[in-house]
Amino acid sequence: MVGREEDGHEFALYVIEVRRQAGDQIPAVTWAVTRRYSQFHELHKRLKARFPSVRELDFPRRQTLFTLQKDFLQKRRVTLERYLKSLLLVPAICRSRELRAFLSQSAIASNGSNGTQVDAKDFVTRIYNSVSDGMEEFLGNIPVLDQLSVAGQNLISAATSQISGGASAESLDPAAQDPSTAAEAEAELNAYETKEVEPFVKPIADLFLETFELSKGNSWLRGRTVVVV
């Protein structure tokens, strides 16, 4: 189906029918959601950051011309449907917040209580993915890019380990976790996300106070220095 923005710009919408099987005290239910290609693309980027194996899945590339032609939409629909089915074959991806939010009719909020808190791993991966996606747009999927992807994932893991205080690379990849420890890992993730983080500017302010002896209450420069910081 085709949607239209306020400025008259048209875009394709893909209808996804989701069926949840019945379980213990859980009835079967079916619902439908509509998603744009840009939302599929964002999901793919986020999943690639967490699950390196997602890079091996067939995902339709961006195209700026003839995006509303019937033949093009049909081919893209088939590819996106096959992509979603491939994701559902991986239990760790099925449990991920990214996929559940994508298939949900309502927004799924993250566990972090502070909305301004920046996830260090997400920050690093966004930079890497922006470069990687740009190379794929011009060069396509070639062996060199696969090697760069492996190297890039190693760099991301190393950088994140430095920022998070020496966490191992495997602990950052949910796909590498044993299913029996998934619940425990989720609890640890929730505890980490809800933990209060000290503002990054505090050490800088403390340095100013010690350097200029501003910790004394009678210093007239104290208030002005803190305001500048």
From TrEMBL:
Domain PX: 1-110
PROSITE patterns: PX
UniProt-recorded name of the protein: PX domain-containing protein
GO molecular function: phosphatidylinositol binding
Source species taxonomy: Eukaryota, Fungi, Dikarya, Ascomycota, Pezizomycotina
Highest taxon of the lineage: Eukaryota
InterPro entries: PX_dom, PX_dom_sf
Listed Gene3D superfamilies: Phox-like domain
